[in-house]
Write a structure and sequence with these properties.
By secondary structure, the protein is an alpha+beta fold. The chain contains twelve helices and ten strands. The chain has helices at residues 2-15, 106-115, 137-149, 155-173, 177-180, 189-202, 210-216, 221-232, 236-254, 259-265, 271-282, 286-295, and strands at residues 22-25, 31-36, 43-47, 50-56, 58-63, 66-71, 74-78, 82-90, 97-103, 130-134. The strands form two sheets. A six-stranded antiparallel sheet has the order 1-2-9-4-7-10. Strands 3-8-5-6 form a four-stranded antiparallel sheet. Strand 5 (58-63) and strand 6 form a beta hairpin. The longest helix is centred in the middle third of the chain and has 19 residues, at 155-173. The two termini are 27 Å apart. Residues 194-292 form the HTH araC/xylS-type domain. InterPro entries: Homeodomain-like_sf (IPR009057), HTH_AraC (IPR018060), Tscrpt_reg_HTH_AraC_N (IPR009594). It holds the Pfam family HTH_18. This is Helix-turn-helix domain-containing protein. Keywords: Transcription, Transcription regulation.
């Protein structure tokens, strides 16, 4: 199944004249394809609730102090918005990395769960809101049909909801259903922390009061700290710092902003403190990092 799926994706990309490396959007909203012909340096981004599937090659993603590695026919499921560093660890021109990212639709997930005769119970696992698992035959079949439907321009609007419902069904009835269902439970700790994260993301460049975030999450200060760290593998202030550093990196690479301007733009008062934090996070000084990232052609 792995090789056949990878071949199907390759045929789809080649038929559209896509390059050998890059991130390619599709006609299905929230479905993207990644093909890379070489290993990559760590790339920072904020992961949304999504299914990240590797069809060929391998990848590693670092969330705070926790690293998840997964290879062919495995997936990473992210249940809450988290800044992370991801890198492709297995890829070559002869056997490129091929992956698919699929944003999860909480509305459809909630609908499917409500229709189950025996909805899953949330697991007692107190770990980070991310896990890695093998791609089941049922989910792989959904992905195979998704790729085939991309050739039909009329398919997305009509068939996308049905296939998303099927994907949600297999996730909610599979071995990790107890984790997946936490995304949509009405008063779960995950949902409450997600509300605070939404506020933090919208105001990451401003000073943050943890008491305010705890109030938004409807938790005591100690409980908020505990559950935020449990779900994201970092404290709220560390989370904010990751957001600032990732945005500053994007500004310097994509918009040619200098180090000092980027630092001030994301909320730092001291460029020297920004540079120290940057080195601690990315292991390299900002200017040198930007030069290396610009030289890396995707």
């Amino acid at each position: 199944m792995s090789s056949s799926l990878a071949r199907a994706v390759t045929r789809y990309l080649d038929a559209r004249g896509c390059g050998t490396s890059g991130l390619f959007t599709t006609s299905f909203d929230g479905l993207n394809i990644i093909r890379l012909s070489e290993k990559t340096p760590p790339n920072g981004m904020v992961y949304k609730p999504s299914l990240c599937i590797t069809l060929q090659g391998a990848k590693a993603v670092e969330f705070g102090d926790t690293i998840f590695e997964y290879g062919a026919m495995a997936f990473l499921l992210v249940s809450i918005e988290i800044p992370a560093l991801g890198r492709v660890t297995e890829a070559s021109p002869e056997c490129p990395y091929i992956g698919i990212t699929l944003d999860l639709d909480a509305g459809i997930l909630r609908e499917v769960m409500a229709e189950l005769a025996q909805p899953p119970l949330p697991s007692n696992d107190q770990g980070i809101g991310v896990f890695v698992a093998d791609l089941s035959e049922d989910l792989a079949d959904c992905i195979r049909r998704l790729i085939r439907l991309l050739d039909n321009p009329a398919a997305p609007q009509i068939l996308w909801p049905a296939i998303m419902r099927e994907i949600c069904f297999w996730l909610l009835t599979g071995p990790h259903a107890g984790e997946v269902c936490k995304l949509v439970l009405p008063d779960s700790h995950m949902r409450r922390v997600a509300e605070a994260i939404h506020l933090l993301r919208a105001n990451f460049a401003k000073p943050v009061r943890i008491e305010h975030l705890a109030a938004v999450a409807r938790m005591s200060l100690s409980s908020f700290h505990q559950h935020f760290k449990m779900l994201t593998s970092m404290t709220p202030l560390q989370y904010q710092k990751q957001l600032r550093l990732l945005e500053a990196r994007r500004l310097m690479v994509s918009e040619d902003v200098n180090v000092s301007h980027a630092a001030f733009e994301v909320g730092y008062e001291s460029p020297s403190q920004f540079s120290r934090d940057y080195v601690r996070r990315f292991g390299i000084a900002p200017k040198r990092d930007v030069m290396e990232l610009r030289s890396f052609v995707i």
